[in-house]
Amino acid sequence: MTAREELGTGRGGFFIENFANTGLLTQFMLRRERVNTLLWILIFGGVVILLVPGLFYALPADERFAIVDALAMPAMVLMVGPAYSAYHQTFGALYTNFMMLFSALTAALMNIFLVIRLTRADEEKGRYEVLRSLPVGRLSNLGAAMVTALIVNIALALFVGLFMFAFGTVLYDTGMCFNGSMLWGATLGATGMVFGAFTVLFAQLTASARTAMGYAFLTLGVFFFLRAPGDIDAEWEILALISPMGLLLRTEAYISNAWWPIAAMAGICVLLIAIAFKLTAIRDIDQGLIPARAGRAHGSFLMKTPSGLAFKLMRTGIVVWVLSMFAIGASYGAVLGALDEFIASNEMYQQLILGPFGITIPQELPLEEAIIYMRRAVSAVGVSLPQMFSSMIFLIMGIFATVPAALFVLKARSEENETRAELVLAASVSRTRYLTGFVILAFIMAALVQLFSALGMFAVGLTTMESMDDFPLTFALQVALIFVPAIWVKVGIAVLLVGALPKKAGFIWAYFAYTFIFLFFGRGFGITPEWMAYLSPYAFVEQLPLAPGESINPVPPVIKTALAIALSVIGIRLYGKRDVNAVIG
Amino acid sequence: MNYNVEVTNLDKHFGKFQALKGVNLQIAEGEVFAYIGPNGAGKSTTIRVLLGILQASRGEVKVFGMDAWKDAVEIHKRIAYVPGDVNLWPNLTGGEVIDLFVNLRGKHDKALRARLIKDFNLDPTKKCRTYSKGNRQKVALVAAFASDVDLYILDEPTSGLDPLMEQVFQACVLEQKRKGKGVFLSSHIMSEVERLCDRVGIIRDGEVVQTGTLDDLRHLTRYAMTVVTERTVEGLGALQGVHDIANEAYGLHFYVDTAHMGAVVNHLNGFGIKKLESVPPSLEELFMQHYRRESA
């Protein structure tokens, strides 16, 4: 059997039967995507570009390479790739070292979403069927999706490449040449395209858009970790070369500027897309080649109570959030062993980390002396640098942890919006019982994410620090969990909003932003008036580490917990008194 | 008499918009009641108030003699609800959703559940994401009829079903009716209403404009008449209750309000009737008249 038999071979000839109107479809897809994808390119590309001057000024030239030792540690190589900047000390090399892997990862995500939207999601919603009833070829839609992805990736590559070159030229002595800048952009575009091609392949194999997306994420994750041994140890480099995530790091933009990995990635794309074309020709519309696994015919014990349902709906979310927070904690644990240089070389960190303890390092001191001065000052307070550092990190993590907690409360609101809440409420379930299920999960979630980020930081800290005396497990748990009552207050406010002002429940995000801005910039940097931070529960969290002999004051956490419970109870009460989803009809 | 549903002077406002204006309904135990009206008339709003999901702005709403808002949980133990547009959790299977609803309502009859899944030809192992509208409705219907309750509240439950499944649905409703259970059915399918329902209520623009048995309602409407006479009929248009007179090849065609039938026949007698046909309105026509009246 030849490909021609599976594909269209009718009167119009091979090309017409299979690719008719691909151009028009591409135009149509670009128009569909103009807002969504343009925003992706502008925001994601914009962050990549603007971090060039951002990092340039955050790390003054004479202190810039003090952090290279930290970058060369295996835990950091795992997160960001090989430490090029250790042997090629330019700002450009440092930027590639810091940013390339995560930027490429983001480009891959953008393409996974884009390709799923243009192919399998359309098929699932029945829109593809309508297109196929028009005079378009059998492969036109897939072809147009790939051309669209190519155009989007080229646009991203040019946008990033040109602006990076512009910034590299304007700033002083960056080593950011034109060739390297264009290679930077091309690396992002090529990585995006490779994962777009993987996605389109999975879209042929699986039974639904969601499963295809799941496979694409899984592939991305596997390739990310597969390359790590190769980046850490040259003996294993083959692992980095067979993973696109390792391959992209071999372009070494601003270091050796190698273009061959781009060619290799283009080859991978062509191969994957050709297979996808072949597969789409032999499968039926809205069917996958891998049959869907049959689900449960009966509900488990979770399907007996509304809280069981709430848990089941959030289960994936709980796992993903807990693991992500563990990973973020772990990434901070990776720098615990190199804090001396890290903090002594950066004024901003000094202000944030040492400031709350009244320590300032005289600016004129050279790095080595600054480190000695800092060590003395810290031990005079009776605490340790990792403790101070983790205190600042967990303030940020604690603010961030409101996101999963508040999301769980808002889930009750979105269930209402999607008219599913009334299906449950029409059974013999009271409003109180229904909403309480979500609220309790949110409370537990707040404690869980803090616990796991502390464990992540501690676990990786074990491998990077010489001794854990400076950062015992009990302290790691304390410094993370002390923020939990403050998160609970936010949860309480979210519950109150869902009960009292359901249409405005999204206001909780504005409050989240408020807390972040005024606590971080206000208290941390003194830019905004300090009293504004006191409109947030985080301002009333005791500053750890405490001097030897002092113990944590139990009153503020107890008051915050009581306040959180009171707000939740009022919110749940009001929820019981209002209309559910007032729809006219 | 015991009533399943008693609604007295029910008003419901959404801001300035008044969705329900003084709705009154009495539905006896074991009665199958059809609630019909054009889109946006207030059918689903009424149902949501009955379910205690919306709170009445004014008036009294009782289900099983209990307050629909305050005693919602108690009431819901004896109610099964099927919405017209069933939105389910995409990542749960149909079987899981059925078990959830049945468990939340109380008793679980495994044999009945299995029979209904077979009758409705549903695959319970599929994720709800992959179900068509009809299949999502089947999930809700199986969950409803597998529960042992006293009142079924069904809001256009068959709008996505094929005629075969429509029959299965009607059989389920008739089975519940035989068992003496009450049904509150909102529907646009007149054959369904004609076959299943004891009484009908018509709502338009938030007001219940008619309630009664089908026969009661027929009396309030027009008959289609065809008459052939020896002499040309004169003065028919001047009579009360005569509408849309048309002189066709087969005879004179017009509509008569039921209340004026006697006077019209007397008048026609004077012209020597050769042939007289009168056709009672179909349910469909009956509702069309009601639906249209306002827009005219």
Outline:
Chain A has 585 residues and is mostly helical. Chain A has helices spanning 3-6, 13-19, 22-32, 34-58, 68-71, 74-80, 91-118, 120-124, 127-132, 140-170, 178-205, 209-232, 237-242, 244-247, 260-282, 306-333, 339-344, 347-354, 367-381, 385-400, 402-417, 421-425, 431-464, 473-481, 484-500, 507-525, 555-577. In chain B, helix 3 packs parallel to helix 5 (133-145) and helix 4 packs antiparallel against helix 5.
Structure characterization notes:
The complex is a heterodimer of chains A (about 575) and B (about 300). By secondary structure, chain A is mainly α. In chain A, about 70% of the residues lie in helices and about 0% in strands. The longest helix of chain A has about 35 residues, at about 430-465. Chain B is about 35% helix and about 30% strand. By secondary structure, chain B is of the alpha/beta class. Chain B has a six-stranded mixed beta sheet with strand order 6-7-8-3-9-10, with helices on both faces. Chain B is built from ten helices and 14 strands. Chain B is elongated. In chain B, strand 1 (about 5-15) and strand 2 (about 15-30) form a beta hairpin. The longest helix of chain B is centred in the middle third of the chain and has 16 residues, at about 165-180. Chain B has helices at about 45-50, 70-75, 95-105, 110-120, 135-145, 165-180, 190-195, 215-220, 260-270, 285-295; strands at about 5-15, 15-30, 30-35, 60-65, 65, 80, 150-155, 180-185, 200-205, 205-210, 220-230, 240-250, 250-255, 275-280. Classes of the chains: A mainly alpha (about 575), B alpha/beta (about 300). At the A-B interface, helix 16 and helix 22 of A face helix 1, helix 2 and helix 3 of B.
